[in-house]
Design goal:
Number of strands: 7
Largest sheet: 5 strands, antiparallel
CATH class: Alpha Beta
Strand content: 35-45%
Order of helices and strands: EHEEHEEEE
Helix content: 10-25%
Distance between the termini: 52 Å
Strand order of the largest sheet: 2-3-1-4-5
Shape: flat
Number of domains: 1
Radius of gyration: 15 Å
Structural class: alpha+beta
Length: 100
């Protein structure tokens, strides 16, 4: 069993409901709990299936140098990158609304 956190943005109510069955919603779109690897993988499959145009990030405690790992789903300016064996987050530039 390991602590996990899932943060959602712009996902359908049916996904939020499915997450709330297994995890505690501590803020709008923020879910935490302690679940097995099997349940964590099942929850991620639910996120993949029901995310639609939203985005999701899931982080969990694990035995790595940083003490955690994470994965993302959907479009977001924050993208995971790997640098010297560490998973970090890079920010994409904001899209310009003006024509050049």
């Amino acid at each position: 069993m390991a602590m996990i956190m899932i943060v959602t943005e712009n996902v359908p109510p049916r996904l939020r409901g499915r997450l709330a069955i297994w995890l505690l919603q501590v803020r709008a779109g923020v879910y935490i709990g302690e679940v097995s690897k099997r349940v964590r993988e099942m929850l991620w499959e639910q996120c993949e299936h029901f995310c639609e145009d939203g985005n999701v990030v899931m982080g969990w405690a694990t035995n790595t140098e940083s003490g955690f790992d994470f994965q993302t789903l959907g479009e977001n300016r924050r993208v995971p990158v790997e640098l010297d064996g560490l998973r970090l987050v890079s920010f994409l530039p904001a899209e310009s609304t003006q024509d050049p």
